[in-house]
Design goal:
mainly alpha; two-stranded antiparallel ribbon; 4 strands; 54% helix; 9% strand
């Protein structure tokens, strides 16, 4: 397709071809790479950040509930949590209610990292969206939320967790 061409939508309406899906993929890849570079300075990967945020929002949650929310098999969560445990960021405790389950808690080191992670995330967001005014930013966030919802994506959960084989990058 060349600039200015039109495409027919599924409902028959014609609209200019702007390659929005390509731009979303391009920006997503760029944003993921830049975020990974930023958090590498504090020894974390995007999957680490996502898991730490999820545990911080629900201290004491089970590995099983984390797996369900991520949409992965429980054995996958064990591997991810093992990596955080090795870094001294997550503590597993046997559940008092069900001894078969482990409850997850952040360590003091992880709690200290949360503040730095938040600063890096704000800088990342500012760099990506710095040319937008407040109204444009809110409009973009709303539109992206609608697109994600239509695709069945869970808010705050990166779909990359489902396809990770080890310590890949999903953030």
């Amino acid at each position: 397709m060349t600039e200015g061409e039109q495409v027919r939508r599924g409902d028959g309406v014609r609209r200019p071809m702007r390659a929005v899906s390509f731009q979303l993929a391009q920006l997503g890849a760029h944003a993921t790479q830049r975020f990974a570079e930023r958090i590498a300075e504090i020894g974390l990967t995007p999957p680490d950040v996502g898991l730490l945020r999820m545990i911080a929002s629900q201290p004491g949650r089970s590995q099983r509930s984390l797996a369900a929310e991520l949409g992965v098999v429980p054995s996958r969560v064990v591997t991810l949590i093992d990596q955080l445990d090795e870094k001294g960021l997550v503590e597993r405790r046997r559940s008092a209610k069900d001894r078969r389950n482990h409850e997850l808690y952040l360590t003091g080191d992880a709690e200290r990292l949360l503040g730095r992670m938040a600063q890096l995330a704000v800088s990342h967001e500012d760099d990506l969206c710095g040319d937008l005014d407040d109204d444009e930013y809110e409009q973009l966030a709303t539109l992206l939320g609608r697109i994600a919802g239509r695709q069945g994506l869970a808010p705050g959960i990166h779909p990359g967790y489902k396809t990770m084989s080890g310590g890949g990058s999903a953030g």
